[in-house]
Amino acid sequence: MKIVAPAGNMDRFYAAVKAGAQEIYMGLKGFGARRNAENFTLEEYKEALDYAHKRGVKIFLTLNTIMFEKEMEFLYPNLKVLYEHGLDAVIVQDLGYFKYMKENFPNLEFHGSTQMTVGNHYEAEYLRKLGFTRVVLPREMSFEEIKSIRENTSIELEIFVSGALCICYSGNCYMSSFIGSRSGNRGMCAQPCRKKYENSEGEKGYLLSPKDQLLGFEEIKRLKEIGIESIKIEGRMKDPNYVFETVSYYKELINGVKAQEKSSELFNRGYSKGYFYGNDNYIMNRDYSFNLGKNLGVLNGKELKLKSKVILGDGIIYLSKDFEKLGGGYINKIELKSGDMSKKSAESGNVIVMRDVPRGSKYVFKSYSKEVNDDAQSRMKKEEQRLVINGKFRGELGEVPMLELSALNNSGMEIKAVVYGEKALEKASKKAVTAEEIREKVSEMGESTFSLGEFDCELAEGIFMPMSLLKSLKRDCIAVLEEKLVASYRRKAPVKREFTVEQETKRRVELVAIVSNYEQEMIVKEHGIDRIYKRGIDIAREGKLQDQDLNSKLASNLYQLLENNNDKVMVNWNLNVTNRYAVEVLAETGKVESVILSPEISFEKIKELGKTSVKKAILGYSKLKGMYIELPLFENDREILKNDEGDIFTAIKNDSGNTEIYLDRPLNILNDLAKLDELLIDEVVLEFSIETGAEVEKVLTDMKNRKGFYKPYNYERGVY
After folding, report:
1. Can you give the C-alpha Rg of the chain in angstroms?
2. Interval 83-111: pLDDT, tens
3. pLDDT > 70: what percent of the chain?
4. pLDDT tens, position by position, 387-438
């Protein structure tokens, strides 16, 4: 089982490799689901590829966002450079962009991002048959579900084990996008889940903020036993010390060592086991949503009974009863309650006296661990990941010596380097060289990126060979092997496929409705709309597939499309379709009649799509769903939330016991249906979710009389 580590810049990249990660995921500047990370220039990326490949490490490019038509062409030159330089794989969210890359770079590996919300083995198998080699499962999966998926598909599985949890399914979170055009599906999430909210009863807190995930020895053991290929660590924007320490921890767990985790000393907003053992509200931390460090305890006046060890040089912060920061600094003196001030450290359970405590302080947190940071820095300077290579030496009397070193690259190809001495070997007059001495000298790899594994030595008896000659042979052979190893990753991209856009024709749009209950359906029918679909469940989770309605002609996930009992199905907007290539991939299932384009696409970009083989639809009206959460967050079936900016949301508990959060102000572009004909689409969808019958009636009447309010959201402003 391999470790997939994050790298947001070169320092984090080196930290991950040194700690022993065999796979690294990294973004290019301007692309990927962490566009706010520093990320890599093209030259830095090429440098990182060579550095990794010399050590047998793989690099995955993160292009895990939805893509618009022209962006694919724009990104092609950069992707071509990385492909030809030896990029190992691309992590992708957009099925359309997968199709585009697959046709232009046929020998590239593709991994399905967690943004695809592939939560069952049917969808995983579908990706495998399309040409994906791996899928990153959603963080919401329990162990039993992961095990079931593993038993029913041969595609590689990658599982998140540590780092930040999104409260909403990744890829199905639209809060940031709908509130302010910063799309999580475009790598620009403003993290509204980490903000404060107030509910209808006046309770304030971080009501949508989960703790981070940190799986331990038992969980890793179970994942390893069922054959999970890779475990993923989140943290492209975290400190290099955090990356190094966390990778090191999981490396030990994989090797069967019950190591003590220290990641919580470096970044901490609370930790849980996530969904590994099922849904549990212990996942949530409503007190604070940011990195405060480790809780040292509650102040009693100026006295603090420690919950964990402190040493001189640790950083601390003082917090109020509401976890507001009141001050802090570094510990430069430790005063025990007994009056002893000679100690350089104090242990858990000791009572220490705090001086200059800010008024109103209740909690003390350790925000910086000098011990853990110093240890990580020290180990990073010493440790190095090396590629295990094999060697062969041949020494015959009267012949020049030969040294061969060989390595396997990431594709399993054997790369060999062979060097010969300049002079024939002579008989020893005194002490002859031994096979053991030759192996010992060859195994001293110095500052190279290799370590010696198997070694075959064919040595005639009584040979004289100076160690300086062997050292020279080894140095030259290592240099040749490194050069040939890096060169083995180079490849030539085929001639670029040119894709032509067939122009669309203007036609009259048809009105279609999606409803949530019988009352809404009856009102819609009374207004003359014949094509009506029933809303379903967004996510097809492995343990809840029986909840999916396969007779519904509206597919809100890939499973509901692939296994649908109808031959004419509408694909819902939460499948995030923003380009014609994605439309065509879905159409190839043979069941698609129409696709509702993502409401994250602008009117301008809708027109750029061109002609498709199935119908295109857009939302005309919807109380937009911002989040789908695999937890019953609130006791009430319906809860009103308000953020500090005054935005209002409705949270409901759905039939599956999960939480859906809706924006208060609906999307509505129905004032002038004739104008919608100009978008070159086929259908306009009215989506009714939490509306009362009276509200549905008003929307339809206002549409008829052209009196309704107009709010286009991202259709006009677009998304970042």
Report:
1. 30
2. 999 999 999 999 999 999 999 999 999 99
3. 98
4. 999 999 999 999 999 999 999 999 999 999 999 999 999 999 989 999 999 9
Which positions ≥6 away from 315 have C-beta within 8 Å? Answer: 293, 328, 329, 330, 331, 366, 367, 368, 370
Residues 6+ apart with CB under 8 A from 398: 424, 425
Cβ pair 588, 54 in contact under 8 A:
no
Q: Which residues contact 479 (CB under 8 A, 6 or more apart)?
A: none
- Where do runs of H (alpha helix) occur along 574-625? 580-587, 603-608
Q: Do 120 and 504 meet the contact criterion of CB atoms below 8 Å apart?
A: no
Distance between CA atoms of 390 and 320, rounded to whole angstroms? 60
* The three-state (H, E, C) secondary structure of 487-540, written as one string: HCCCCCCCCCCCCCCCCCCCCCCEEEEEECCHHHHHHHHHCCCCCEEECCCCCC
Distances in whole angstroms, Cα of residue 603 to Cα of each of 177, 593, 675: 16, 22, 11
Residue 674's pLDDT is 86
Q: What is the pLDDT of residue 31?
A: 67
Cβ atoms 46, 74 nearer than 8 A: no
**Contact by Cβ (8 Å): 493, 100:** no
Dist CA 366 CA 630 (whole Å): 32
pTM for this model (two decimals): 0.95
Helix (H) or strand (E) holding 676: helix 673-676
